[in-house]
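Q: I have two molecules that I believe assemble together. Could you output structure tokens for the complex as a whole instead of separate predictions?
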Amino acid sequence: MSVDVISSDLLNVALLVFMGITAVAVARLRNLFAVVMLSGIYSLLGATLYVVLDAVDVAFTEAAVGAGISTVLMLGTLALTTSREKATPTARARTAMALSVAIGAVLIYATLDMPLFGDPSAPINHHVVPRYLDESLEETGVPNVVTAVLASYRGYDTLGETFVIFTAACGVLVLIGRPRRRKTDGTGASKA
Amino acid sequence: MSAYAFPGLANYWIAIVLMMIGLYVVMAHENLIKKIVGLNIFQVSVFVLYISMGKVKGGPAPILADNITIYSNPLPHVLILTAIVVGVATTALGLALIVRVNEQYGSIEDDDIRDLENAE
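A: Yes, here they are, computed for all two components at once.
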């Protein structure tokens, strides 16, 4: 095994650990501005990890959409609402902790049957994938297999995705797009 | 020991730990923005799980070139590309709902809103 394979594996685990630290900080902090910024950092760490794991297209999208647009949307929401969180009741936190530890334990038990990381003989790397890798250049003329599958073989999926975004945009516009009369009874409409 | 002993299953385990931190944030916190951030943490960790499964040791990114015979798996990448974009659409809708809730109740804390509902 060559040196750069080992170093990329170390980088992979190190990035995952950083993501873990960021996530724990998100769970503990109550300043929502810091929480939103950390969630942007979390996304960016994820994007870096995707580059290490060879998913360059995904990394690009995550950096632009996950770390960029999501963070901007959340900051906008903070500006329209509040940036301070109240303390969490301990009973509720304890129940949530117990539940998530239990679910996590079950999921980790389930991974014991999975093929090891990076194994080329894993079932996920067979069936339809060799066909895409062998034939897509001839059939679509696009050297990037991800683009070939996304835009050509699964073009209708991508069209459906566009409908989802359109629907979400309509929903957002219906909810907060139009100017509203301020209520006269005092509550609400504080800064909007 | 096989050549795939490191990181072995550790990638999946850390992804699951991240997932559970996200789930904990969603369940434990009353603040609606914090819940959306928790949902994002959960979402990115699911993406990491998928992309980890598609990695092939020694294989470069699936962009075809001469002299290369082994590539990482492109299919999880395609799935996750779609999921990221759909994820930001749902985040935007959730945040718009939060802004509306704040206008209506003057609070984005789940328990405050419940109290106001019960008082009416």
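A: One point stands out. The first helix of chain A runs from residue 3 to 28.
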